[in-house]
Records
---
Amino acid sequence: MNRREFVISASGVAVAVFAPVRIAGQKKAIEADLGVLADGKGLNATKRTISRLTDGARKGVRLSEAEGEGPAYLPGIEFANGTIELDLKGKDVQGSSFIGVAFHGVDGTTFDAIYFRPFNFKTEDQARVLRAVQYISHPAHPWQKLRAEKPGQYEKPVKPVPDPNAWFHARVVVASPKVSVFVGDATEPCLTVTQLSDRKKGLVGIWVGNTSGGDFANFKIVPA
């Protein structure tokens, strides 16, 4: 029988959840229910309000805008290698839309993440176009440090270019230590990096950046 653990929700209430289930070695895709985050389960390190969202055929969650950044982890999943798929929607407002996924997480401050800057998707500023998708590894390697020390290595443009105000589909393929990012139906990655952390597994969920909210739906994990 699965062991139960307790996590602290955004409201400060201890919520019982099942202990993480290892998915390494499994072949079946996991259709993750993001709605559990709106119910106060999982670990909300974003300090945001999470509400259920239905947009046409998509069912997911909306994270409110707020100061700070961080992940909201799904309960009951320990992710190692495989593919994370999801639909995301941000907005075309410069400096106010950072949305993505966190993986190999330990807590609200230690994790790897891939995130997008939708306001850089179609800008005429070519310097910003080159910064549409980003890899980070917190706490040691935030985007500021990576951009200063290894410019252009951990952030790239996205292809095909999505509408910055509309839903788009992303796939993050983790074959530790290699991470590749695909957008839409692309067969070639728009970003490929070598992880900067030495973690091989951990928590997985959605992620938002400072002052940003975002919409997330159709979260699926396909184990390697």
---
Amino acid sequence: MTINLSANVDLVQSLEAQIERIGAFIGNGLGISVAAVERAVEGVHSDDIAKVLQDRSIDSGLLTAAAEIKRVSAQIDVTIHVLGILRALPHILENGERIERVSLGAGNTGRAFDLETNLRIAEFKFIQWRGGPESIRQNGIFKDFFDLATAETSKRRCLYLLGTHHALKFFRGRRAMGSVLSKNLATRERFMRLHGERYATVDQYYADHEQVVEIIDLLPWLPELAALPIESPE
């Protein structure tokens, strides 16, 4: 694989310039800057608005900078997923443990789990939860737990999270199983084939399987991720 260092340098320099422009616009705080712009444009005649914007450097370049930063930042979640797994490996691997397969990119990569070694299978979630009715994230974490619990393996099954409080509260709660499985047809069908109507709520399923899957907090090893913004409920 050939890495175009010149292109990478150009990208970094371009982002630096764009961040500098956005930073200048934000100033001491976005709210303060927006309020100042609001005062500046109120009452301005159509003949004068272009000059007011020009005086404040509000032009196509500033909007382009904001759009480019948003485009690049859309890849940050995947980047955190990749780097978080890699940085966690020295902490979680045991002596003699050998990595067999990894799936570093978030989402469906065609591999069953984020990590498989000769000793364990593992899934990773790099999300800071606020708590409350976060049904989409709860559905996702249940799927990971269920996939680990039902895997045909004698290896350790590990679910790594940023903090375990909200996840355990969900697993020990009485959310209806039908609601948790309602958005993922494949998982629902597999769950019903295995268990039928045996489990009405999440806590019932978790009580029977909490010894099968280890739920492990990554924050003691990756304290820098404690600074991630807390996800708001959808």
---
Amino acid sequence: MTTPTKLTARALAAIDSRTPTLADHLWRGILTAAAAGYRVGVTARRWSFDAGIRGARRLAVPVVCVGNLTVGGTGKTPATIAMVQRLKGQGLAVGVLLRGYGREGGAVGVAADLHGHIAPWPQVGDEAALLAERLPRVPVVVGADRFRAGREALRRFPLDVLVLDDGFQHRQLHRDLDLVMVDATDPLGGGHLLPRGRLREPPSALRSAGALLLSRSDQAKDPADIRRTLLRLAPGVPHILTRHRPARLTDLEGPGIHAPSLVRGRRTFLVSGIARPAAFHATMTALGATLAGTLPFPDHHPYSRADLERIIREAEAARAEWIVTTEKDAVRLREVAAALPGRYPFLVLGVDLEVTEGEAILDALLRRCVGDRGAERSP
């Protein structure tokens, strides 16, 4: 699924890669004017909530939000998984809320329950389906209105805390802790608001975060400079450095699990339909894989049989030993691949969010957010 924002970003990237024409300058001017109007709207909206003119509704349990300031690609899904696992480690019953981007219908839906039942991804969205796969027996509930989704989760499941995936701009729901992801390789999304750039809000919004999670901090060119910029934008907000650690390779069509080192020195063909394919490519290169070719699709792309046939043709032409994709893509590819079993060796790279600095700060923030709920459940 390609949104107007992503089409705009691609058009601007094409402009930036060539000598701008008069039409290019005109297009940039239109987008800059539109971004100015967007700034007025989002600033007024944030002020209305901060001033109490519009109110956020509270749920009966604490809500930990994993959000970001830019459109897509910061690594929220691995971060959400990591936060759920940390909270479960404190003895808490945890549920997950998210919009369910790209799903069929808009009503509140249950992607996963306590019994291990997982809804088909088209009904709940690929991110919800991936969370359900990675977090066995953790309730995952989707809905555009996250308050209604949260209320349904609490009605159906005995929960101590809810983790909200991608809700930093969803001010209608009160959050007890905002963890904001910042991609260290592109911290401010080009520095422009939508639709000129990828910023959902002005960078000053970071001041309301409980902590900033710097994702891909190991891939940043100058992490110290990025942190100085963030300290200036959001003084006093702690930084937690993280990286996306390649954790496993699995067979797309079977239960096989392999060490990430399997691809070292081997010709691989990379397929992805994610917001930032360059980060996936960089991870595979860092693992020592020889990139025989890459084939990016739009973010959340619903793969068809024709897509898979094209992938296989291009992998064969590139003389690749394996096709490798991401976990989120695997959710959308698996059913299609099942119709063409064994056509080409297909691997899925799984990554985990690893905290490299600030772990004690993160754990303290989570404990403060949930209070004594974990202790109440302990024997």
---
Amino acid sequence: MWLIKLPVAGPATPERAFSLRSRMLDELKTDVQVHPLAGAIWLRISAFAYNELGDYARLGEIAAELCRSDRGRN
């Protein structure tokens, strides 16, 4: 398991994390845990035997898109 800090502006609250996760599900069609911690928003990812390297590369692209599209929202 690993945490990845998202470079997003705005408050690091449970509501904000829920909003970002909802956008990942609805707009970007992926599911990943999003948590507020220590004044930042983090993705929590896990490695599984059935995951491939390309799965993580795609998650990186999705997270980058989320961060880009979030700039104008807060």
